[in-house]
Design goal:
Elements lengths: L4 E2 L10 H9 L4 E3 L1 H8 L6 E5 L3 H10 L5 E4 L4 E6 L2 E7 L1 E6 L4 E5 L3 H6 L8 E3 L4 E4 L3 H7 L8 H7 L2 H13 L6 H9 L9 H12 L5 H10 L1 H5 L16 H8 L4 H7 L4 H10 L9 H7 L2 H10 L3 H9 L9 H6 L6 H16 L6 H16 L2
Parallel strand pairs: 3-6
Antiparallel strand pairs: 1-10, 2-3, 2-9, 4-5, 5-6, 7-8, 9-10
Length: 384
C-alpha cells in the first residue's frame, strides 16, 4: 500500500518544538519504527528515530546550518544523532542491504522509501510518518497492527538469516503486540533459526529476554517459545513456561519464577550484573513463614520477601509484607562500649549474639531488654 493515510489528530509529539526544529532542518524527513507504531496504538512512545533520503554528510551539514548538534554515531550505517531538547534522536539515511552475516549488514544508501521498508524486520516496524501526520505503509503493517499480528517483512527465513537477533525480537514483539499466533511458515522459520542463537552475544540474548519479561503478560509468548524449542535454547538450565508469573513487570522476579535449573550457571552464562545475580538468588528462596514475618523483615528487604511470596502464589502474604515496616534492632556498638567493652572484634561478636536473641524472640524486645541481655552476656564471659 503506497498511498498514505493520515492520523487525525497528528500525534502530539510531532508538535514538540525541539523535535519540530529537527524535522524542519531535514527536508523530507519522516519518523520511523516504534514511535509510529505506538502512536497508532495510542500508547506512550519511547525513542524517536527519523529516516531521510539524504546522505549522512548532508544530514550533518543541515543540522549544523540549523544550529543543531550533529553526532556521528554510526556513519558506516548512515546514522547521525542530534538532541531535541533532552531527547536523543537518531537520523538514518534510507538503506538497502548489500550483504548480511546473521548479525550485521553491509548497506548501501538509497532514496527509495520502499527499499528501506523492505529491509526492516516486522511489518509493524516498517511504517513511516511525515511531520504533517501522513503515514506510509509499504508492507501491510497497519492491518497487522490492528489484528495484533507480528509478521516478518517478506520471507521469514530470509529475515531471520539476515540477523538472528530477530528470532528473540519476534517473541518480544509477540509479547507486547501479538494477539494471534504466527502462521505455520513463520513457526517453521523460527524453529529453523534456533542454531543461529549461538552467533549472538550473551549480553544481546539477555537484553532481549529481559525486555520480553517486562511485557504486561509475557506468558503466551513464553509458551510459544517453549512450543517451538526456543525457550530451551535460550534457557538450557531449565525453564517452566507454564509457571505462575508475578504481575509486577520485574524481569528478574519473572526469571526466578520460570527458572528451574542452576541460577548461578545462568547468571554466569548470560553475564548478569552483580545486582541482578544477587536478586535472582534472593527471589529463588522459599517465602517467609507467615508467623515469623517480623524476623524475616529484619533480615531481608520487603520487596524480596514479597517477590518470593508472589512466585509461590501467595498474593495475600505479598500484599501484607508490603504494608509492614521492617523492625529495627535497638542497639549499636556504642551500647556495647558503654558497658565497658573495649572497641574491637568482641564488640561485633557481642552485638551479633544480642541481635540473635532479639530475632529469636520475634523482634519485640526494646532497647532496655536487649541491653540487659547484653549485660548478662558480658558478665558470663567475664566469669572464670
Amino acid at each position: 500500500m503506497n498511498a498514505p493515510f493520515r492520523l487525525l489528530p497528528p500525534p502530539a509529539f510531532l508538535a514538540e518544538p525541539e523535535l519540530a526544529r529537527v524535522l524542519a532542518a531535514l527536508s523530507g524527513a519522516r519518523v520511523v519504527g516504534g514511535a509510529v507504531r505506538d502512536a497508532m496504538l495510542g500508547i506512550a512512545i519511547g525513542d524517536i528515530d527519523l529516516a531521510v533520503a539524504m546522505p549522512p554528510d548532508a544530514v550533518i551539514a543541515a543540522l549544523r546550518r540549523a544550529g543543531l548538534r550533529a553526532i556521528p554515531t554510526g556513519l558506516a550505517h548512515g546514522t547521525v544523532s542530534t538532541l531535541a531538547g533532552t531527547r536523543l534522536v537518531e537520523i538514518t539515511t534510507l538503506r538497502r542491504d548489500i550483504a548480511t552475516d546473521g548479525r550485521h549488514a553491509r548497506v548501501a544508501f538509497t532514496d527509495a522509501w520502499e527499499e528501506d521498508a523492505a529491509r526492516r524486520d516486522f511489518t509493524i516496524n516498517a511504517l513511516s510518518l511525515t511531520p504533517d501526520g501522513a503515514v506510509y505503509d509499504y508492507c501491510g503493517g497497519r492491518d497487522d497492527l490492528a489484528a495484533g499480528r507480528v509478521r516478518f517483512v517478506g520471507d521469514p527465513g530470509r529475515r531471520l538469516a539476515e540477523d538472528y537477533l530477530r528470532l528473540l525480537r519476534f517473541f518480544r514483539f509477540q509479547a507486547r503486540y501479538g494477539h494471534v499466533p504466527p502462521d505455520a511458515a513463520t513457526k517453521a522459520a523460527l524453529r529453523a533459526a534456533i542454531p543461529g542463537l549461538a552467533r549472538l552475544s550473551p549480553e544481546r540474548i539477555w537484553a532481549e529476554l529481559k525486555r520480553l519479561l517486562t511485557a504486561p503478560d509475557p506468558a503466551p509468548a513464553l509458551a510459544l517459545m517453549a512450543e517451538l524449542g526456543v525457550l530451551d535454547a535460550v534457557l538450557p538450565e531449565g525453564a517452566d513456561a507454564g509457571a505462575r508469573l508475578p504481575v509486577p513487570p520485574d524481569p528478574i522476579l519473572r526469571l526466578a519464577a520460570i527458572l528451574r535449573g542452576d541460577g548461578d550457571a545462568l547468571a554466569e552464562r548470560l553475564r548478569l550484573s552483580k545486582a541482578e545475580r544477587t536478586r535472582l538468588a534472593a527471589f529463588r528462596r522459599p517465602p517467609p513463614d507467615p508467623a515469623r514475618l517480623a524476623e524475616a523483615l529484619a533480615e531481608t528487604p520487603a520487596d524480596i520477601l514479597a517477590g518470593r511470596a508472589l512466585i509461590a502464589g501467595e498474593t495475600e502474604l505479598a500484599a501484607r509484607l508490603r504494608t509492614m515496616a521492617a523492625p529495627a534492632f535497638p542497639l549499636s556498638g556504642r551500647d556495647v562500649v558503654a558497658l565497658g567493652v573495649a572497641p574491637g572484634p568482641r564488640v561485633g561478636s557481642l552485638l551479633a549474639e544480642t541481635r540473635a536473641f532479639w530475632l529469636a524472640r520475634g523482634c519485640r524486645d526494646d532497647a532496655e531488654i536487649c541491653r540487659a541481655h547484653l549485660a548478662d552476656l558480658i558478665a558470663e564471659q567475664a566469669t572464670p
